[in-house]
Amino acid sequence: MSSSANTPFVTKTVPSAVDRTDRAVVIHLALSLFVFAVYGVQVCPLLESLTLTELLLPVLTVLVFIFLTHNRLAPSFDLRSDSEAIQTGQYWRMTFGLFVAAAVMLTLFNWWAYSAPLESGLKVILGLMTLGFFVATDLALQYEKKQASILNIEQRRLKPAKSFMPLTRKFSLFAFANTLFIAGILFLVINKDLHWLTDTSTNLSLQEAQRIILLEVGFVVAVMLAYTLKVISSFSHNLSYFFQNENDTLQRVAEGDLTVRASVASHDEFGHMAHNTNLMIDDLERFTHEVKQTRDVAILGLSSLAEARDNETGAHILRTQYYVKALTEHLKQLPKFKDYLDDQTIELLHKSAPLHDIGKVGIPDAILLKPGKLTDEEFEIMKQHPTIGAQALSIAEDQLGSNSFLRFAREISETHHEKWDGSGYPKGLAGEAIPLSGRLMALADVYDALISKRVYKPAFSHEKAKEILLEGKGSHFDPDVVDAFVACEQEFIHIAKTYSDKSE
């Protein structure tokens, strides 16, 4: 079964990954310019001695290099029709590598232009690497979610990888690297401040020096904390996205929709969960189809058995079945019935209708096949067929457990001769105490009997049958069901013509 047929997403025009991440890249690089400038002044005496232009221009240049190179390389990571994986790891390595390259270029420039010492170069490299780590991680997480969204929109599913890095390991590696980078940056800041305090040329009071140091440390901690929280937020959004996809799929399956499939859009635990969910739904759909086929075969066999012992034809069974469906399709549009008559209930009523006279198998042939009018005693025996049918279906319920199909079949068999005013049989139920299934079958059965030829009467016209049904509104038949019949009487005429008895 193809994913395009089973994935509940609408096809749209999908922009490339570059178009969707340009804004995030620009924001991250702009923040990097500001953060690195402040960081450089705090940890490196050489950078502190430069003018604002001398400090910012080289940094801006390498960040522009990162942006342009990123835009050139990022399209190669876009999903193609032959893609087998979302290349999140490769995308992260590309972005982080650009920051490392920019750090090396900036270090070489400072060495060439200002004879910067090795210590200064290492501080520049560590600073840009730290920024690159956070920026690359956040952009990679956004890339992963957006590419997963593209897969959903394009109704494509990945083939789960046999081996992958677990989410727990990814998070542990992030926490470990995050701790190292933060510790390294704090070490450089504190080390520079300790040298500054021991500098005898510093003419600041101890309180002023303490205030400056706290501001510097506070700034670094705030920046590192903000980046950490941003990455955690992006990671949480991704987790929520994949959990929501899985939950939405399972919810729709729980509601009976077996056409839905989960989106396999990642090579991790979520991808395997979605894949296994789809395998489960495939098996459930196949099993459900087999159960429905078995049910339909049972209905066909039982209704054929009843037909074989009755004067009525198989066409009568088909006609009444479709009459019931026509009535339910109209009634479901009314507020009173719309919650009850969902698609599944309508299907079950349609499938169960052929069993309405299954109890006739328990009626003696002398009565069931009598060509003339029945005596009062014979009619009393004939009136037992609803109860006989209901009892047989109740035994099935006791043995196999109750389900919607058996319940509807039993209701229809037992109550299709009940009347709205309580004068029917076998229990003399009245009004809405009669199940809707029985009220529907009552009209369908009587209408078909009226328009059909019998040994004891000729076939009536549709108009004559309609007149009799209208006379029975509120006494024999549910008024709502009669109104539904009037609204869809052309469908009744079409059904009667389509499934007419061959002998007529």
TrEMBL record:
Database matches in Pfam families: HAMP, HD_5, MASE10
Keyword Transmembrane helix included in the entry's annotation: yes
Species assigned in the record: Litoribacillus peritrichatus
InterPro entries: Cyclic_di-GMP/3'3'-cGAMP_PDE, HAMP_dom, HD/PDEase_dom, HD_GYP_dom, MASE10
Keywords: Membrane, Transmembrane, Transmembrane helix
Transmembrane spans: 25-43, 55-74, 95-114, 120-141, 171-190, 210-229
UniProt name for this protein: HD domain-containing protein
Keyword S-adenosyl-L-methionine included in the entry's annotation: no
Ranges where the HAMP domain occurs: 248-289
PROSITE patterns xref list: HAMP, HD_GYP
Family matches, as CDD domains: HAMP (cd06225), HDc (cd00077)
Ranges of residues in domain HD-GYP: 291-501
